[in-house]
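Key result, reporting period 2: structure in, sequence out.
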């Protein structure tokens, strides 16, 4: 009798365990997700500098390892010089842009104030002799010259008072921007100082979540982030410096401001060619023809460099399409700020790769490897 009761309770306990066991992992996962969300909610004021710090740390991690060998194994010295390199590559150009706009705020305000009063000059004589389209361009040009363009500019151009207030607002937020820069550098120091432990943790988590695929995606995230960050930043620096030289040679007024606009446009993936071409048109009507020709040559080289340099740098690390870079940069900018310009393409590329692996479709790297064989 006692043996039967014992077997009955043991069987009931086993049945209860079987019934509870599928629920327990679900509850554990929900609890873990809630804890993660709560942690993100607590640190969300510091997320922008943390994201910046992680992005720049991933980008410059190989530099840390090389500097550590040069500095006789000292991680502190390697991190110090890496932070200096990050300031020069990522932060110094942005600071230059802010200083340039701050120094020329009066000139920009005056130019915008007189912009609605400007009028297109008469169409050049050679425009009317263009085959097929010359007869249509001249009347349209005259219509813009007489009515549409000044009226449109008066409607869309803000008043100097609004520009001044906007600048004061930006200057007021300059302190918070500098604070964010400082927090980013602090995050970099902390991340690079404990990089091996963080890498080990991420590899363990990715292995438990996705096995070999998880580790592969983690490695691709590192490579893609490094390639996109270096490609976008170095291309913007080189292109804006080259454009600044062209602007100075051609004698464009406020050339440093135009170069700063080029840098911002390159970072946002709009390119700097349109700025150079607008400057060429401006010089054509306001300066000797030789200046416009010089500016046009610099503009053509800038466009060619924009289509060559950035893909060349990025494809040293990862085969990512231009469409994904542009969509990721625009979407990341609207959601994560300037750091999203680098994070957005990485997330889109990883999503595309994961879907291709799941569907069994070959990636671009696989197709190129097969073609090389």
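The corresponding designed sequence is given below.
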């Amino acid at each position: 009798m006692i043996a039967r009761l014992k077997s009955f309770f043991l069987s009931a306990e086993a049945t209860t365990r079987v019934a509870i066991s599928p629920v327990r992992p679900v509850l554990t996962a929900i609890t873990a997700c809630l804890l993660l969300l709560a942690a993100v909610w607590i640190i969300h004021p510091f997320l922008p500098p943390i994201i910046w710090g992680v992005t720049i740390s991933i980008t410059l991690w190989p530099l840390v390892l090389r500097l550590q060998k040069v500095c006789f194994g000292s991680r502190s010295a390697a991190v110090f010089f890496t932070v200096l390199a990050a300031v020069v590559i990522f932060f110094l150009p942005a600071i230059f842009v802010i200083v340039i706009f701050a120094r020329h705020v009066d000139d920009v305000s005056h130019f915008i104030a007189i912009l609605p009063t400007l009028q297109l000059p008469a169409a050049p004589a050679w425009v009317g002799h263009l085959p097929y389209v010359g007869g249509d361009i001249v009347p349209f040009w005259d219509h813009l010259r007489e009515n549409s363009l000044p009226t449109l500019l008066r409607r869309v151009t803000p008043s100097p008072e609004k520009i001044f207030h906007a600048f004061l607002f930006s200057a007021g937020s300059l302190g918070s921007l500098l604070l964010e820069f400082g927090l980013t550098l602090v995050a970099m120091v902390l991340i690079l100082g404990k990089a091996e432990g963080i890498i080990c943790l991420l590899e363990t988590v990715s292995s438990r979540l996705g096995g070999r695929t998880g580790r592969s995606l983690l490695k691709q995230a590192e490579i893609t982030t490094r390639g996109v960050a270096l490609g976008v930043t170095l291309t913007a620096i080189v292109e804006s410096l080259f454009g600044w030289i062209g602007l100075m040679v051609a004698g464009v007024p406020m050339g440093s401001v135009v170069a700063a606009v080029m840098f911002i446009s390159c970072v946002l993936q709009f390119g700097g060619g349109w700025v150079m071409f607008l400057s060429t048109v401006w010089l054509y009507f306001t300066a000797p023809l030789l200046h416009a020709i010089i500016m046009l040559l610099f503009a053509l080289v800038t466009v060619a460099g924009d289509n060559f340099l950035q893909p060349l740098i990025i494809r040293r690390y990862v085969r990512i399409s231009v469409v994904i870079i542009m969509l990721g940069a625009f979407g990341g900018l609207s959601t994560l700020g300037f750091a999203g310009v680098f994070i957005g393409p990485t997330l889109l590329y990883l999503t595309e790769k994961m879907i291709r692996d799941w569907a069994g479709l070959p990636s671009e790297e696989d197709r190129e490897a097969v073609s090389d064989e």
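The chain has 16 helices and no strands. Residues 46 and 183 are 8 Å apart (CA to CA). This case is discussed further under Risks and Mitigation.
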